[in-house]
Design a protein that fits this description.
This protein has about 325 residues and is mainly alpha-helical. It has a domain of about 200 residues. It is about 55% helix and about 0% strand. Strands 1-2 form a two-stranded antiparallel sheet. Helix 4 packs across helix 6 and helix 4 runs parallel beside helix 13. The longest helix is centred in the first third of the chain and has 27 residues.
């Protein structure tokens, strides 16, 4: 696989430039229009071209790239304590939504909750710019089924570090949601809507942060913040850091760390990754037994998501947290 797009091909035998001019511009305009619409509505995606399905679609990926470039805006908007607090809080809340719900609930069904709580955390997860809950769960279930084989689209062993970290995320094949992998979730129309319009929630969050900054600049100028500052730190910086922290589990957690359990894949336990991803870094534990709500199997393995789920269980918001069976711990090498 490559991050570059293929070079243009020559006209096929028997074709003339005027024939191409008569047909191809209309097709190209339709394809361009579909790609632009797909920024907002994933159902507008064009038919999959196998020749380009596993190459980065730079036009479709343009908003994602722009989000990274927007972080440079910190040089102009400055920084304030309130902007850093908002950015950190949004990182923490959204990381919990990803790890506790996108991963442990939607992907693995390791506990139960109400439809209302399910939707609330799906909504928070959708603000992370990591697509909708059905997309996330479908891809993650495929990862467990084919971990570190050619059919695992983000295996660093097979595809290399850069591809496993971010390249796969930007290809036409992987923009799509395979609903056949998530029939249990696809029955909820509200989740399908979040998947279809997966940029709507992030855009609304960005607008809300800009509005908050403008309001604080007017009402509490002593805080030293502004709309541009709140947008840059609260949305762009927080979201970019959140994304790259999350995908270290695809890339770094299959390369660096310890292997307590013998698994068919390269998953590893890594304390540092566990800290920044609220427990996801205990990845070898998880790959050996993905059916537990807890990924830090030992008492000393810090798993902030597990602590959060325990609190939600005590409050009656979730139920049936699945524990780590004794036979799993008995199989541990260390």
């Amino acid at each position: 696989m490559t991050l570059s797009t293929p070079a243009s091909t020559s006209l096929a035998p028997g074709r003339h430039a005027d024939d191409s001019d008569a047909v191809e511009p209309a097709a190209a305009d339709a394809s361009l229009g579909q790609k632009l619409r797909s920024w907002f509505d994933t159902s507008a995606s064009s038919a999959l071209d196998d020749a380009r399905a596993d190459r980065v679609d730079w036009l479709r990926a343009a908003p994602f790239v722009a989000m990274h470039l927007a972080c440079i805006g910190v040089l102009w908007v400055g920084v304030s304590p309130v902007a850093l607090i908002v950015a950190t809080t949004l990182y923490a809340v959204r990381m919990f939504a990803l790890t506790g719900f996108y991963h442990r609930y939607f992907s693995h069904r390791t506990f139960q909750t109400s439809r209302t709580v399910q939707f609330v955390f799906a909504l928070i997860g959708a603000s992370c710019v990591q697509r909708g809950p059905l997309w996330w769960a479908a891809h993650h279930r495929n990862h467990h089924r084919h971990a570190d084989t050619a059919r695992d689209v983000h295996s660093p062993r097979v595809h290399g570090f850069v591809w496993s970290h971010v390249g796969w995320f930007l290809t036409p094949r992987n923009f799509r949601t395979d609903l056949s992998r998530v029939p249990d979730l696809a029955k909820f129309p509200e989740l399908r809507i979040l998947d279809r319009f997966d940029t709507l929630v992030p855009v609304l969050l960005a607008l809300a942060l800009f509005g908050l900054g403008e309001l604080l600049q007017h009402l509490a100028p002593q805080l030293g913040t502004s709309g541009g500052q709140m947008l840059t730190w609260g949305f762009f910086v927080s979201t970019v850091v959140l994304f790259h922290a999350t995908v270290t589990i695809n890339s770094l957690a299959h390369r660096f760390g310890k292997r307590r359990f013998e698994t068919r894949d390269d998953s590893r336990n890594n304390l540092w990754l566990a800290l920044i991803t609220f427990g996801e870094g205990w990845h070898n534990n998880h790959h050996f037994f993905p059916g537990s709500s807890r990924q830090g199997f030992r008492w000393w393995e810090i798993d902030l998501t597990w602590y959060g789920l325990r609190l939600m269980s005590a409050l009656g918001l979730v139920r049936g947290l699945k524990p780590v069976p004794a036979w799993v711990l008995a199989r541990a090498r260390r």
